[in-house]
Give the backbone structure.
Amino acid sequence: MADNKDGTKTIVKLCAAGVVLIILGYVLIWFLFMPTIGGSFGAGFPSGSGGSRVRSVIIDVEPQVVYRIDKNRFFTLEKYKDCTHGGFVYYNDTRRGIKELVTSGATDKEPQDELDLEVENDVMAFKGKFIYSASDNVIAYPFRVRNYKYGGENYYFTYKELNDKGIVFGGDMSYSIYELKVTDGAVYIRSSSTDKMYKKFNTPNSGEYESIAISKVTIDKISQDNAFHCNNNIKPRSVKYN
Protein backbone atom coordinates (compact mmCIF):
# COMPACT_ATOMS: atom_id res chain seq x y z
CA MET A 1 0.00 0.00 0.00
CA ALA A 2 2.85 2.36 0.82
CA ASP A 3 4.38 1.74 -2.62
CA ASN A 4 1.06 2.58 -4.29
CA LYS A 5 0.78 5.83 -2.32
CA ASP A 6 4.35 6.80 -3.22
CA GLY A 7 3.65 6.05 -6.88
CA THR A 8 0.51 8.16 -6.85
CA LYS A 9 2.37 11.08 -5.28
CA THR A 10 5.08 10.79 -7.91
CA ILE A 11 2.52 10.86 -10.74
CA VAL A 12 0.80 13.93 -9.23
CA LYS A 13 4.14 15.73 -8.91
CA LEU A 14 5.04 14.91 -12.52
CA CYS A 15 1.65 16.16 -13.75
CA ALA A 16 2.02 19.38 -11.77
CA ALA A 17 5.51 19.89 -13.14
CA GLY A 18 4.19 19.31 -16.66
CA VAL A 19 1.47 21.92 -16.21
CA VAL A 20 4.02 24.44 -14.93
CA LEU A 21 6.28 23.78 -17.92
CA ILE A 22 3.36 24.25 -20.34
CA ILE A 23 2.44 27.57 -18.70
CA LEU A 24 6.04 28.76 -18.82
CA GLY A 25 6.18 27.77 -22.48
CA TYR A 26 3.09 29.86 -23.28
CA VAL A 27 4.53 32.83 -21.38
CA LEU A 28 7.81 32.54 -23.30
CA ILE A 29 6.00 32.36 -26.64
CA TRP A 30 3.89 35.40 -25.69
CA PHE A 31 6.95 37.51 -24.90
CA LEU A 32 8.78 36.39 -28.03
CA PHE A 33 5.99 36.95 -30.53
CA MET A 34 3.66 39.56 -29.00
CA PRO A 35 5.35 42.56 -30.75
CA THR A 36 4.63 40.97 -34.14
CA ILE A 37 1.04 40.17 -33.25
CA GLY A 38 0.53 43.62 -31.78
CA GLY A 39 1.69 45.21 -35.02
CA SER A 40 -1.13 43.49 -36.88
CA PHE A 41 -3.68 45.19 -34.61
CA GLY A 42 -2.64 48.52 -36.10
CA ALA A 43 -3.38 47.54 -39.68
CA GLY A 44 -4.67 50.57 -41.51
CA PHE A 45 -3.17 53.02 -39.01
CA PRO A 46 0.18 54.70 -39.62
CA SER A 47 1.30 54.12 -36.02
CA GLY A 48 0.41 50.44 -35.92
CA SER A 49 3.10 48.88 -38.08
CA GLY A 50 5.42 47.05 -35.74
CA GLY A 51 5.36 49.87 -33.20
CA SER A 52 6.81 52.52 -35.54
CA ARG A 53 6.27 56.12 -34.45
CA VAL A 54 3.79 58.49 -36.10
CA ARG A 55 5.69 60.87 -38.36
CA SER A 56 5.01 64.59 -38.63
CA VAL A 57 4.21 65.95 -42.08
CA ILE A 58 5.05 69.31 -43.64
CA ILE A 59 3.06 70.10 -46.78
CA ASP A 60 3.87 72.88 -49.24
CA VAL A 61 0.70 73.55 -51.22
CA GLU A 62 -1.10 76.58 -52.61
CA PRO A 63 -3.88 77.78 -50.26
CA GLN A 64 -7.29 77.81 -51.88
CA VAL A 65 -10.52 79.65 -51.15
CA VAL A 66 -13.10 77.04 -50.18
CA TYR A 67 -15.92 79.42 -49.24
CA ARG A 68 -16.43 83.08 -50.12
CA ILE A 69 -18.72 85.39 -48.19
CA ASP A 70 -17.89 88.56 -50.13
CA LYS A 71 -14.87 90.18 -51.76
CA ASN A 72 -13.16 90.75 -48.39
CA ARG A 73 -14.27 87.74 -46.34
CA PHE A 74 -13.63 84.09 -47.13
CA PHE A 75 -12.43 80.75 -45.75
CA THR A 76 -9.23 79.11 -47.01
CA LEU A 77 -7.94 75.54 -46.83
CA GLU A 78 -4.18 75.35 -46.31
CA LYS A 79 -1.46 72.74 -45.72
CA TYR A 80 -3.64 69.96 -47.12
CA LYS A 81 -2.63 66.79 -48.94
CA ASP A 82 -5.80 66.93 -51.03
CA CYS A 83 -9.42 67.96 -50.54
CA THR A 84 -10.25 65.04 -48.26
CA HIS A 85 -6.98 64.54 -46.40
CA GLY A 86 -5.78 66.91 -43.69
CA GLY A 87 -5.24 70.65 -43.82
CA PHE A 88 -6.26 73.70 -41.79
CA VAL A 89 -9.22 76.02 -42.46
CA TYR A 90 -8.88 79.76 -41.80
CA TYR A 91 -11.38 82.61 -41.70
CA ASN A 92 -10.01 85.64 -43.56
CA ASP A 93 -11.10 89.28 -43.59
CA THR A 94 -8.72 91.33 -45.71
CA ARG A 95 -10.43 94.65 -44.89
CA ARG A 96 -9.98 94.19 -41.14
CA GLY A 97 -6.70 92.30 -41.37
CA ILE A 98 -8.05 89.13 -39.74
CA LYS A 99 -6.84 85.59 -40.37
CA GLU A 100 -8.06 83.10 -37.77
CA LEU A 101 -7.72 79.33 -37.58
CA VAL A 102 -11.17 77.76 -37.28
CA THR A 103 -10.37 74.06 -37.61
CA SER A 104 -11.89 72.35 -34.58
CA GLY A 105 -9.43 71.34 -31.86
CA ALA A 106 -6.41 72.05 -34.06
CA THR A 107 -3.32 74.18 -33.82
CA ASP A 108 -1.18 75.30 -36.73
CA LYS A 109 1.80 75.91 -34.44
CA GLU A 110 2.94 72.32 -34.92
CA PRO A 111 3.11 70.23 -38.11
CA GLN A 112 0.34 67.79 -38.88
CA ASP A 113 1.07 64.10 -38.52
CA GLU A 114 0.17 61.02 -40.52
CA LEU A 115 -3.02 60.47 -38.54
CA ASP A 116 -4.25 63.98 -39.42
CA LEU A 117 -3.87 63.13 -43.09
CA GLU A 118 -6.04 60.02 -42.74
CA VAL A 119 -9.24 62.09 -42.51
CA GLU A 120 -10.94 65.11 -44.03
CA ASN A 121 -10.67 68.46 -42.28
CA ASP A 122 -13.55 68.78 -39.78
CA VAL A 123 -14.86 72.03 -41.31
CA MET A 124 -14.61 70.77 -44.88
CA ALA A 125 -16.48 67.62 -43.82
CA PHE A 126 -19.69 69.66 -43.53
CA LYS A 127 -21.58 68.95 -46.78
CA GLY A 128 -24.79 70.87 -46.11
CA LYS A 129 -25.84 74.29 -47.40
CA PHE A 130 -24.08 77.14 -45.60
CA ILE A 131 -25.63 80.60 -46.00
CA TYR A 132 -23.62 83.46 -44.48
CA SER A 133 -25.65 86.61 -43.93
CA ALA A 134 -23.86 88.04 -40.89
CA SER A 135 -21.78 91.22 -40.79
CA ASP A 136 -17.99 91.30 -40.52
CA ASN A 137 -18.42 91.47 -36.74
CA VAL A 138 -19.25 87.75 -36.73
CA ILE A 139 -17.14 84.65 -37.33
CA ALA A 140 -19.27 81.52 -37.63
CA TYR A 141 -18.71 78.08 -39.11
CA PRO A 142 -19.80 74.43 -38.86
CA PHE A 143 -17.50 71.61 -37.81
CA ARG A 144 -17.52 67.87 -37.25
CA VAL A 145 -16.66 65.99 -34.05
CA ARG A 146 -15.70 62.33 -34.48
CA ASN A 147 -16.13 59.70 -31.78
CA TYR A 148 -12.98 57.61 -32.00
CA LYS A 149 -14.06 55.24 -29.22
CA TYR A 150 -17.54 54.30 -30.43
CA GLY A 151 -17.49 55.51 -34.03
CA GLY A 152 -19.89 57.93 -35.65
CA GLU A 153 -19.80 61.71 -35.84
CA ASN A 154 -21.85 64.79 -34.98
CA TYR A 155 -21.88 68.31 -36.37
CA TYR A 156 -21.80 71.54 -34.40
CA PHE A 157 -21.48 75.24 -35.13
CA THR A 158 -19.47 78.03 -33.54
CA TYR A 159 -20.61 81.66 -33.52
CA LYS A 160 -18.36 84.46 -32.27
CA GLU A 161 -18.86 88.22 -32.16
CA LEU A 162 -15.77 90.40 -32.46
CA ASN A 163 -17.15 93.49 -30.72
CA ASP A 164 -16.85 94.36 -27.04
CA LYS A 165 -19.54 91.85 -26.08
CA GLY A 166 -17.28 89.01 -27.16
CA ILE A 167 -20.21 86.60 -27.43
CA VAL A 168 -19.16 83.05 -28.25
CA PHE A 169 -21.63 80.20 -28.42
CA GLY A 170 -22.24 76.97 -30.26
CA GLY A 171 -24.84 74.32 -30.79
CA ASP A 172 -25.31 70.66 -31.63
CA MET A 173 -26.61 70.19 -35.17
CA SER A 174 -26.77 66.36 -34.87
CA TYR A 175 -25.44 64.07 -37.58
CA SER A 176 -27.57 65.20 -40.53
CA ILE A 177 -27.80 68.85 -41.55
CA TYR A 178 -29.32 70.16 -44.75
CA GLU A 179 -28.90 73.89 -44.18
CA LEU A 180 -27.13 76.30 -41.83
CA LYS A 181 -27.82 80.04 -41.99
CA VAL A 182 -25.86 82.63 -40.04
CA THR A 183 -27.15 86.15 -39.33
CA ASP A 184 -26.29 88.87 -36.84
CA GLY A 185 -27.63 87.58 -33.55
CA ALA A 186 -28.99 84.21 -34.68
CA VAL A 187 -28.22 80.88 -36.35
CA TYR A 188 -30.87 78.90 -38.25
CA ILE A 189 -30.72 75.15 -38.89
CA ARG A 190 -32.75 72.72 -41.01
CA SER A 191 -32.13 68.98 -40.84
CA SER A 192 -33.65 68.17 -44.25
CA SER A 193 -35.08 69.84 -47.35
CA THR A 194 -38.59 68.81 -46.29
CA ASP A 195 -38.46 70.63 -42.94
CA LYS A 196 -40.96 73.49 -42.77
CA MET A 197 -39.40 74.98 -39.66
CA TYR A 198 -35.99 76.29 -38.70
CA LYS A 199 -34.32 75.70 -35.36
CA LYS A 200 -33.34 79.22 -34.34
CA PHE A 201 -30.45 79.67 -31.90
CA ASN A 202 -30.30 83.22 -30.51
CA THR A 203 -27.27 84.95 -28.98
CA PRO A 204 -26.26 84.63 -26.23
CA ASN A 205 -27.22 80.99 -26.19
CA SER A 206 -27.57 78.29 -23.56
CA GLY A 207 -27.99 75.44 -26.04
CA GLU A 208 -31.72 75.99 -26.42
CA TYR A 209 -33.53 76.96 -29.60
CA GLU A 210 -36.97 78.01 -30.79
CA SER A 211 -38.83 76.70 -33.83
CA ILE A 212 -39.72 79.27 -36.47
CA ALA A 213 -41.45 78.90 -39.83
CA ILE A 214 -39.24 79.27 -42.90
CA SER A 215 -41.59 81.93 -44.27
CA LYS A 216 -40.89 84.08 -41.20
CA VAL A 217 -37.14 84.24 -41.83
CA THR A 218 -35.94 87.13 -43.99
CA ILE A 219 -32.34 87.23 -45.18
CA ASP A 220 -31.12 90.68 -46.26
CA LYS A 221 -27.93 89.63 -48.00
CA ILE A 222 -26.56 86.27 -49.04
CA SER A 223 -22.98 85.07 -49.28
CA GLN A 224 -21.42 84.46 -52.69
CA ASP A 225 -21.09 80.74 -51.91
CA ASN A 226 -23.74 78.50 -50.38
CA ALA A 227 -21.51 75.52 -49.52
CA PHE A 228 -17.87 74.63 -48.97
CA HIS A 229 -16.04 73.51 -52.10
CA CYS A 230 -12.54 72.38 -53.00
CA ASN A 231 -10.46 72.04 -56.17
CA ASN A 232 -8.77 68.64 -56.10
CA ASN A 233 -6.64 69.56 -59.11
CA ILE A 234 -4.39 71.67 -56.88
CA LYS A 235 -1.58 69.35 -55.79
CA PRO A 236 1.13 69.85 -53.14
CA ARG A 237 4.51 71.07 -54.35
CA SER A 238 6.10 68.84 -51.72
CA VAL A 239 5.15 66.54 -48.84
CA LYS A 240 7.91 65.92 -46.28
CA TYR A 241 7.73 63.28 -43.54
CA ASN A 242 9.88 63.67 -40.42
The radius of gyration is 28 Å. Residues 2-40 form the longest helix (39 residues). Residues 1-53 form one domain.
